[in-house]
Write a structure and sequence with these properties.
disordered N terminus, 0% strand, 115 residues, mainly alpha
Length: 115
Amino acid sequence: MWVFCSSPVPSEVCVSTTCAPSVYLKPEVERRILNRLKRLEGQVRGVQRLLAAHHSCDDLLVQLGAIKQALNGVTVQLLEGHLETCVAEDVRRGEGAKALASLKGALGHALRHAS
């Protein structure tokens, strides 16, 4: 089962328009990503509290490292979901070049911002 977009994301937020408008992440993938993002949000708030309470820089750096790793995990899940939906749909339609371009673009964005 696929999720269909009921309200499009503003175009200035989108990085790519290679996915068909009716193709989106599978519901379980979307749910897992959303849950991870909510946990990340909690981690960021925790770091803000540590900073406000003047905890050591070491404590802050450890927590920031954990946040970075968690964000990388979300990125991997999103890339996998993108492969299973947008890229796979292009391949099914016989648009291999478009699928490859979509994959290259997604990997480029993810890797450019991974460090």
